[in-house]
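Q: What would this complex look like in 3D?
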Amino acid sequence: MSEKITINPITRLEGHGKIEIFLDDNGKVDDAFWQVVELRGFERFCVGRPAEEMTRIAPNICGVCPSAHHMAATKSLDALYGVEPTPTAKLIRQLEYNAFVIEDHYIHFFFLAAPDFIVGPDSHPAARNILGLIDKVGREVALQVIEVRKRNREIIKYLFGKAPHPEGGLPGGVPKGITEDARKWMKETADFTVEFARFALKLFKDVVLGNKKYLEMVRSEAYKLSTYYMGLVDENKKVSFYDGKVRIVDPEGNEYALFDPQDYMEHIAEWVEPWTYVKLTYLKKIGWNGLRAGNGTSLYRVGPLGRLNAAEGMATPLAQKAFEELFDMLGGKTVHNTLAMHWARLICALQAAEHNQIIAADPYLTSKDIRNMGLRLQREGIGCVEAPRGTLFHHYKTDRNGILTMVNLIVATQHNAAPICLSIKQAAQEYVTGTEVKEGLLNRVEMAFRAYDPCLACATHALPGTIPFSVIVKDKKGETIRKVERPGAVA
Amino acid sequence: MKVLLLGMGNPILSDDGVGLFIARELEKSLLGVDVSTTAMAGLEVLELIRGYDRIFVIDASTMKKCEPGKIVKFNHEENSCVHLFSSHGLNFFELLCLGKKLGYVMPSVEGVYGIEIGDEVCFGCGLTRHLKEKFELIARSIAEDIRACLSRWKNEAEVQG
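A: Here is my prediction, written as structure tokens for the whole assembly.
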């Protein structure tokens, strides 16, 4: 009898999603789907509004990626109004954006991902969180994380009004400059963050890479997926968060495409499946080949590991050293190990911190030349940034009055949605057999998608009043034959 | 003793934001109580509540077992309020534990007022007719309950000298 295991909804994930694992007649995993079960509506309700409102609407899509949407919207307005920001404005934008990348990556690592490794994948879910992590490593680490987050948020607040939802991105510039006094404390924040970034990487090496069992898990075939990779790169093909060209490499690491973000539609296409509200993306020139990795795949991955694979290196010295260590440890390019995303995430945060040190020392940072005003409406604009979870595109069209007639957002979780299904299937094949449901096994399946740090709020507007977590095993006819709930779950 | 009334909700999601509207309504009438509002959950709330001795929370609720506007007061961890839980981070009660573990002064939860909003929530900057009609009654009921708590604590403090 064929059976189905449902994990619904998923813990530590923004928005509503569920995992369905289908078993064959022998109790082996036959297929797995990560479904988004709520409707996306943000693009539609922006139509009819003045384009300049996008820098206020987009950051409020959710509290997870607000700065990424704000910056993509701001850059889209640059393109829409045909204006280049001043050099100082670019520095200020990058300073804010790096601060955001830093706080986002550390919250994900320490609050969402690290408990799996530091508390342990087999531990009780009630202990597998930041509280359990503090019990293991001491409260000083958590205090440091909170301090890093607080200090970097001060930068966001100073430059764009408020955090976590910044506002005020303007075509051609920024709303506010930086004083010499502000430069000083921002430099101190950058210095403090670099030190913390080095500590975080050391902790990862000691706790995860230094543990034979965890290292085997990172290297395990259950967490390995051969796909293409995509990320923004600078003029030297090094990782870039704010600007640059989009680079795609094939599963062997060869450059497959290098293009300006405004040409994204020549390379990426969206695919609709009836079982999810997320539009899946694929490489247009290869064509949609379904949920398939390895030979013949048209799927690519984005995010921390995606951008490291897609680039030829990091743009700052300490991050470059860490980049080389990662590839040395995991067998050279290309690294397909899904759980290595956590390591890559810490390396990306280090680059962002180092870059802010450089920006804070730049003499142009405090110039008053913060905006170009030569606006000429082009009626179409595309903006792209490397969001913490991966490459983010905003694409707007307007009428002659600047009123939006089309809005298209391609967000990181869309790029990763199909690979997430495959990663879940792989983990399930390794750890789930039959209808026996053990917490540790289920968490290993969850760890497969948690590595991507997926966020559904861009695609939906969830109202999660609860965090129920239940597993429902059904036969082929849809009859429930077993149900397991975590404490606090609501049926 | 420092007491906080925290209103939680989404300001652009009509009835979802009822906790914000009620908290703001009570801001001038509750003497001895600080009032704060937030659209955020998880760690964002930590800085708002640390340092207080006692806290009341007003939030939208989706119990689905009663009419919109009905108030249910929870004294313990419940799963029915909309903003006390975050699927991308800590829930409100874990946050209290986190604060204590970090050595912060964290408040005791004296009551979570869940206001039923029903199943259907639409975008909008104000409350729907259902809740507008009951707004004054909801605000008065919560204010009376909080005042009763304040009075009881005052008496207890006097007895204890």
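A: To summarize the key features: The first strand of chain A starts at residue 3 and ends at 8. The domain at 84-221+338-372 of chain A is CATH 1.10.645.10 (Cytochrome-c3 Hydrogenase; chain B).
Q: Very helpful, thank you.
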